[in-house]
Amino acid sequence: MSLANKSNTQTLAKYLQLEQNGKIQAEYVWIDGNSGLRSKTTTLDFKPSNISELKEWNFDGSSTNQAPGDNSDVLLRPAAIFKDPFRGGDNIIVLAECYNNDGTPNRTNHRHSCAKLMETHAESHPWFGIEQEYTLFDLDGQVLGWPKGGFPGPQGPYYCSVGANVSFGRDIVEAHYRACLYAGVTISGVNAEVMPGQWEFQVGPCEGIDMGDHLWIARYLLHRVAEDFGVVVSFHPKPIKGDWNGAGCHTNFSTQAMREENGIKAIYDAIDKMGKRHAEHIAVYGEDNDQRLTGRHETGHISQFSFGVANRGASIRIPRHCAAEGKGYLEDRRPASNIDPYRVTHVIVESSLA
Ligand code: ADP
Ligand code: MN
Ligand code: MN
Ligand code: MN
Ligand code: MN
Predict the structure, then answer these.
(1) pTM (global) more than 0.80
(2) Domain GS catalytic spans what residues (predicted)?
(3) Distance from the first to the final alpha carbon of the chain
(4) Looking at this predicted complex, what is its ipTM?
(5) 30/40 Cα distance (integer angstroms)
């Protein structure tokens, strides 16, 4: 493909200035049958102040791998509202849960049970922070900034890099960061990663169900921003085989007990419980995660649970400053970049608090 599929943002800006005559555009976003995101728009004639004012809607689930063709209607039930950074003004993004015709959650809907579990453990005030790594590709399928048909120099100079010869895609990263802040996503930082063309953003701390909501919307915004630049985002955990770092979603976790004086006890207790259910965790820690959790490239091996202070080759790491202060949080380094955060936060709470 040689013709860049890129937005003409300057021309578009002219139309986005036009009056909306009191109408509001609501972009309904949902998770599809392939762990991707889909969205479509509806016009509202009022400005919603509460989620309950938004209509339930539906879509053709046979086109998204979420329903059979002969019973294809999947219901969209609004779950969270964000501001729309692309349309601006009073326009909104609506994160929606998917339900089948008979009222049961669609098989892709892991938010439903996660929300229930978080409600049950609300008094523990579970906080999460997820470090989302991702890789940028051009429309020819080449990692952004890599020489055509070849490879860049070996890893070393790219992590947190500055300079046109080592840092590729900063425009997208900056635009996405601001879009998240505008939308109301709790983004807490960004950095360039070890593999050139790979980046990370952090979302958190978020309490309970908010973690999944904010991470999914941050991903949606990244896809949309990259679309403007004619660039494609990959959340695959090992996008390039060989001596290149994979992409993860380190999941940082704490409860109120862990954050209080001597919380380190509660941290070790949670690690002990999580370690006993390693296989159940790995089962929801992402497709193709075996390609990434090799015990090399700053990972622990997929078949063996381990933990340690400041150890980036372990399954779970206790940050040095938390060990020193005797309280804080733990970092589960196993989750892959393509996780469903509802499933990951679910299993962590289930293992450590049940
Ligand atoms: P790393 O050193 O592993 O690269 P980052 O700075 O990228 O760590 O990410 C740390 C994440 O941990 C952030 O998303 C932050 O919001 C989150 N975090 C900080 N404190 C807590 C806490 N008490 N509980 C849960 N998450 C936390
Ligand atoms: Mn139609
Ligand atoms: Mn990080
Ligand atoms: Mn990282
Ligand atoms: Mn980390």
Answers:
(1) yes
(2) 110-354
(3) 52
(4) 0.98
(5) 9
